[in-house]
Design brief:
The complex is a heterodimer of chains A (115) and B (228). Chain A is mainly alpha-helical. Chain A has helices at residues 3-23, 37-47, 63-107. Chain B contains nine helices and two strands; from the N terminus they run H-H-E-E-H-H-H-H-H-H-H. Classes of the chains: A mainly alpha (115), B mainly alpha (228).
């Protein structure tokens, strides 16, 4: 797959993410939009009269701290992916360079001494 | 797909732990075996784990008006098999249960079952099927990752309906399916697309590792190398 198709696929992902924002533009959490599905399921369970028997041992004290930890989670993942794929990219580039050199060296064998 | 802390009766918590733990243990053994046999695949293991970290932290809006997140376990399942992906999923779920109050320790077994076992097994089976049919590995990866994502949420809906069949199992199931699975459809497609991009990039740079892991056959490796 050519690199330019990556942009097409990533653009599709962006559209999928943006479309709901456009559909429910102007609506917010107060109108019941864009809440988490996990929480909605929790509400349904509580409506059956069930009471949770255990609470989280630690909860992020505020939305700010929660977003900090989410960002940290994404950052840990992103840095590992970036580092390793960048390393692979460098390896591939070097491999191609060596292959090219070998080829030119083969072609010019008579004129250049091998070292 | 996180069932919140304390939101399953203890009998169900126990059951899902009993089902999930052996799979995770087997996955740890598999990781040891695969990295011993193919030490060159270690960086890809890290990438697969990191991919789960990134994707499961992205809470995206969906057309139903609520937010949910992809799982990212499809990549690891396609590359290393479902048991290894279970371990990767379990690590992320522990992180989220302890630090983010997402999911929980009591419901960890249930959440590992949906995200770390059902999803990866689906991904692995779908990818194998597409490979056998002789289709492009990219189609295989797309279908594997999307269906793994979707089936993870179907599993969560099933788990909750089993524990809370109020008024009946099927009524509860429809309700939970609406909350989880319908919301998840567009996100599953997004996850499929993202997984295709990263898989294709890996395939271009290191087709040799994918061949060693028997993810792609020698023919596809030749083709990829000819293009690059």
């Amino acid at each position: 797959m050519d690199n330019k198709y990556y942009i097409v696929l990533l653009a599709l992902v962006a559209i999928i993410a943006i479309l709901p924002l456009a559909m429910y533009s102007g609506m917010g959490e107060d109108e019941g939009y864009f809440g988490g599905a996990d929480t909605s399921a929790g509400t349904v369970v509580e409506e059956t009269g069930y009471e949770p028997w255990f609470n989280s041992i630690w909860e992020p004290p505020s939305g700010e701290i929660e977003s900090l930890l989410f960002a940290l989670q994404a950052a840990i993942g992103a840095i590992i992916i970036g580092y390793i794929l960048g390393y692979f990219q460098g390896q591939a580039k070097e491999r191609r360079r060596i292959e090219k050199e070998v080829k030119t060296a083969d072609g010019a064998e008579n004129t250049r001494p091998e070292n | 797909m996180h069932i919140m802390e304390g939101f399953l009766p203890w009998q169900w918590c126990l059951l899902w732990y009993i089902v999930s733990l052996p799979v995770v243990a087997y996955g740890v053994v598999q990781i040891k075996k695969i990295t011993d046999e193919h030490p060159e695949s270690k960086p890809l293991l890290a990438v697969s784990g990191a991919f789960v970290f990134v994707l499961s932290s992205l809470k995206l809006p969906s057309v139903t008006g609520s937010c949910s997140h992809p799982t990212g376990t499809g990549l690891g399942a396609v590359l290393f098999g479902p048991a290894v992906a279970s371990v990767l999923g379990a690590i992320v779920l522990v992180f989220q249960a302890l630090l983010l109050a997402h999911g929980g320790l009591t419901t960890l077994g249930a959440n590992i079952f949906s995200m770390g076992i059902v999803g990866p097994v689906v991904a692995w089976l779908v990818y194998k099927g597409v490979k056998k049919a002789g289709w492009s590995p990219l189609i295989g990866v797309f279908l594997a990752a999307s269906l793994a994502d979707l089936m993870t949420y179907v599993t969560t809906a099933t788990q909750l309906s089993l524990a809370f069949p109020v008024p009946t199992f099927s009524a509860a199931f429809v309700n939970f399916m609406w909350i989880f699975a319908i919301t998840q459809i567009p996100l599953a497609i997004a996850e499929g697309l993202l997984t295709v991009v990263i898989f294709d990039y890996i395939m271009k740079l290191r087709p040799d590792i994918l061949e060693n892991l028997k993810v792609i056959g020698p023919k596809i490796k030749e083709k990829v190398q000819a293009v690059v």
